[in-house]
Structures are given as structure tokens and as C-alpha cells.
Amino acid sequence: MPSSEPPLFKSGIPSFDTLLGGGIPTRQSVIITGTPGCGKTVLCSQVAFEAAARGIPVVMATVTSEPHDKLMSSLSGFSFFKPELLGEKLFVISAYSALKRGPKEARDLLLQTVREHKAGLLFIDGLRSIRDLWSDEARLREFLYELGIGLSAVNCIGLFTTEYPLDRLMALPEATTVDGIVALSIQPQGARRVRRIELVKLRGRAHLTGEHVMTINQGGVEFIPRLEATPLDFHDAPPTLTRKGFGLPELDALMFGGLPELSTTMLAGSMGIGKTLLATHFVADGARKGEHGLFISFFDSPAMLTARAKRVGLDVDALLRDRTLTVQHEPPVELEADLFVRDLLRTVDARGVKRLVIDGLSELELSILDPARRRMFLASLAMRLRMRGVTSIFTREVPKVVGTELDFSDAPVAILGENLLLLRYVELHGQMHRILSVLKMRDSKYASDLREFQINDTGVKVLAPLRSAAGLLTGQARPIGATVGGGLE
């Protein structure tokens, strides 16, 4: 039975086609709207040049008296710009004189040029200029309606830009006379400005709704779909019984061998208590067993991280040299979560990563600029890592060195807490001690003992269970008798 789905016009920008649900349905017309400077002309010009490079004739029509060489000069810095296509597959015309004469003359010029070159794409840059020139709603509506019919008849896609915010456009006739609407915007986020794209309408085609990240670089425009909006090819499977250890026998024994394979773990603790060091042990232990590890730090460079590990007896230089361990520094400078995770998953796929540490979960959480997205974003990330066979640890700082505030249940990061390891300082008899506890391991056995641990030149040492004080997890311990098995006195 033949498919009822219409054929698609590929934009030549893979990430744009993903948002479009595969591409633009043929014989449709789409408006790209947004305020000045948001990237409308760059996007449509890139689509035009990519189509011409594939051998599809394209007509670009300007609607002002601005010279064509000025437009081409502004595009020449992008890698998609290929001057050899001009006059061969990409034809630039000015419709300004025809527009001054009237809608019929402009429409006839555009359709005649499309037919003459057998064009598969017509790009008109600047519908607002036409509105301003005519100042007549009825003429503009008739022009767009008849132009759309004419383009459909010759199997040509129409791309039109206009300089209106989305809410303003939706009240104008242009919104009802085209098949699709794409809105670009530049939004304030504190002192930052971020680019976004939204597919508001695309007739007869399922597409990714809502706002998505947009970037402009030397290659042109690129879009990063919201992680939680991207379809996930989920395969249900029972949990494995395999454990992934830290290479620290006393700690691994608390978890009956280590963390459950494919799980996500939140390693929470006070500032400076040893979260990064324990996480480094985790990826290093896997790398020694041939499991590629990836350690991403928002704070420390690879040189700083490896030097600090070496000072406490953990030498990872050989693992770095043979590339079974990769340490990556991601300074949290105007970080975009979707872009970061896109690159992270590409690295995981390319290197076959099986153990992952993200050192600084709070920085990742804050980079999700819309707080309402955070829980679903992190849940989607955890699921994608699991499906790739990755066992992951996320470190998170507990704000207070001592105190009773330890409830993560309402925080978005709680979604990552399949397993929860807590490291705390405890004050007793005027001295500070480090303690650790496994607070949670989903569907797995673990020992709930509180353990003191020490970090010195010889490494990390986990001591025997503590039973000599109460209130240890609050950081404010109270002696209850003689020490039994632990290091507290």
C-alpha cells in the first residue's frame, strides 16, 4: 500500500530537519519570523545554498533597493557560501520595482523566474518591507495566497522571512496564508542573551514542538532539540546483577561489590571532603579493567585533577596515555545544557564509554535555564546513558559543612538518585572527621553502616563501622559510649 505521507524537501541542515520531523513537505510555503538580528536571513540563505549545492535550482528574491553584493558579502564568511553556485544553480533577483507596481506584477515576476529556472525553492527576504510598501492588508493577503498556489503548481517550496515577534505575526493575515511558521528569537537570561527556535505550525507534519536551542557559528546555523523532547528508542530490559566497584575494597564491600551496572548515582558531600577523589577512583578502576571511563569536571583541568590524585597515591597517567580514561574540563561559562549533553553523548558513543563521572551536578542543573525543565531533562539524560550501557556518577555539593539539611527529595537532581552516597564532616570532641554512608541503592543490597574514612598520602582508607556516637549524619555527633570498631574517640 503506497504511503500517504507527502515527500519531503530536505533543508540541508540535519538538526533543522530533525525539528521539522524530517524536512519541509513539498509544495508548502513557510514563514521564518523574528526580530532583527535573530538569524532569519542566515537560516534561509543556508537552506538555499545547501539546496543549490545538491543541484536544486533556487531563486533568492530581495524586496528592497539594497544591492545584492551587500547581501552576498554578509554571507561570505559562512562555510555554506559557495560563490560558484551564483548564476548556475542559485539566482538572485530584485523584486523591488515589480512590488512598487503592484501585487500582480510582483507575483508574475517571481513565478516566471521560478518556472524559467525550474526552481525547487523560492526565498523571499523581507515580507515586512512588502507590507510597509503597500500598507494594504487585502493586497498582501491576495499576493501571498496566489503566490502560494502558483508555487504549489510548479512543485516549489517557499521560504519567506518577516521581522515580527511571534505574537504580533499571529494576528496578521500572513499567519493564515502560509503552511508553516518558524519563530526565531533572542531572549534575555540575566546578563546573557540566548537564541531559540520554535516550530509553531507545519501543516500535515508531526514536528518537535516548543522552544529549542539555536546557535550561529562559522558553519551557519545549528539547532539542538530539547533533550526531553527528542524521541527515545527505549528497550525494556531487567537490571543486571553486575557491580561496578571503586577499587577500594572496604567501600565496595558496603555495596556488595560496587554500584549496580547501568545505574546513576549521586555522590553528595561537603566542600573539600573527597567527592572528586572517590569519583576518580571509580573511573580509574573501570579503566584498569578495560572499561573506557570519561571524567568531566566543571572546575578542574586535567593536569590539576591528575596531580591531585597522584598526591594521594592514585596515578592515572598510564590510563590517560592509553586512552582508556579521558578527563575533560568544561568551564561553566554561559553553559547551555542541551549543547553540553549533545556533545557528551557524542563523546560517549564515539569512545564507547562505560563509566562516566560528571563532577559538579549543580553546575549542570543551573545550565538548564528553565527551572521547569530540570527534572525531565535529568531523567532523560539518565535514561539515555543507561541505554548506552553507561554506569554514571554525578557529584553534588552539600551547601553546609555541618547541619541537618539533607533533603534532596524535592530537588530536580533527585531524579538521578537511584543510588545515593553521602560524605559528611562530623565534629566530635573538637575535631573534624570524615564519614560516609550508602543512603540508598535502588533494588540492591547494601550495608547501611556509617564509616569513617581517611585521605592521606597513601590513598583513601575506609575504616570499620561507627557505633560510638549518635547524630553523625547531621554533622553534629553526640558520644554514646566507648568506640567500637571506628576511628572516632
Automatic annotation (TrEMBL):
It is an enzyme of class 2 (transferase). PROSITE patterns: KAIC (PS51146). Its EC number is 2.7.11.1. Residues 7-238, 242-476 form the KaiC domain. Keywords: Hydrolase, Kinase, Phosphoprotein, Repeat, Transferase. One of its GO terms (molecular function) is protein serine/threonine kinase activity. It comes from the Bacteria. The keyword Coiled coil does not apply. The keyword Repeat applies. InterPro entries: AAA+_ATPase, Circadian_clock_KaiC-rel, KaiC, KaiC-like_dom, KaiC_dom, P-loop_NTPase. PANTHER family: CIRCADIAN CLOCK OSCILLATOR PROTEIN KAIC 1, PTHR42926. This is non-specific serine/threonine protein kinase. It comes from Corallococcus terminator. The lineage of its organism: Bacteria, Pseudomonadati, Myxococcota, Myxococcia, Myxococcales.
